[in-house]
Input
Amino acid sequence: MNKPMNPITITTFDWVPEVPRGYVRDIRVRWALEEAGLPYRVKSVPFDARNAEHFSHQPFGQVPWLTDGDISIFESGAILLYLGERSDALMPTDSRSRCETLEWLFAALNSVEMASLPWSIFQFSGDTGDTPGWKRLNEFLKARLQHLEPVVAGREWLAGTFSIADILMADVLRLVDRFDGLAGHPACRDYVARATARPSFVKAHADQMAHFAAAD
Amino acid sequence: MNKPMNPITITTFDWVPEVPRGYVRDIRVRWALEEAGLPYRVKSVPFDARNAEHFSHQPFGQVPWLTDGDISIFESGAILLYLGERSDALMPTDSRSRCETLEWLFAALNSVEMASLPWSIFQFSGDTGDTPGWKRLNEFLKARLQHLEPVVAGREWLAGTFSIADILMADVLRLVDRFDGLAGHPACRDYVARATARPSFVKAHADQMAHFAAAD
Output
């Protein structure tokens, strides 16, 4: 008797409102798996009724999480690192390039997204006026983009070759671009354009859009 | 002739204003190195005049970065992961516990700090009034703490044994606690207390305070 197949599984919501479609973080994992050419399937959990089993896999009640055999892992950054260790299409293996991948992967999440995601919350709220907190948050993001600009002007991909660091950084910057926040940073905008032109992103994005549309 | 010693080196600022003292991110790296018992030295770069060499190591003009032989790596999360791979005092080695460490390490930075650091920017600005953006940001943080509360109530350390995930999560929560943001979350507060009672944190904190005081 053959052992049952147990492919890598991404779990995401069954449905989300229109606004976040195309931006739900399962796209990062879909994109990585497409780049690596690893087979996977997608499962859904209810958006409206998050149960104890959901919280046992993702303690914040968010998505995605990934299962692979007896491993269950949450946080898109952790999942991408886990996949990067399985495929050198996602992370170079020499120690210096691996360190470069790690530092840029964390930079995407902890230097850029830590500014950009709260910034987008204010954009969604239409609350971008004259308050001191907003001004500091806006300056925080602009400073990060200003320093990122010469980096992505000077190289095609952050760690030399395309890697999980680019999946995260490009996905983080896409949301800034949605609110025209890259207008003063043409190299950042070009970087997003070349990352999202990759067939693996195009497929991941189309698949996510179709997944949520199927639930309407 | 002996080869020259080339210990692990943390680079931080020579001086910072009073407010961030005790919270500059070199404390995360000091803490990890103390836990691991790895020898290290601390170098300084000017806070006021950040030069090209600084940006070549840390493209955002921040600190810390770490050098180890011919490796130079920035982002506190990446540095801690790099050190975790050198010492099982910082990261368990079996694959399941390693995944738990990774997911909680990213959760500290990308689920909790992504809410808490912008929240602290508003606290520092005294801008915690009635605007829709601030209210959403405050709810964002509260939701994350509410889900973290039963996790740290139910276990001593996030990945079973003490790890780099705890260094990051405890350091992230310390800044929330500074503004009394853990008042409704006693298990989070207790978790910070037990992490910061560790001799390695106490030494790292004292060393950072002494480093900046020496420059006054």
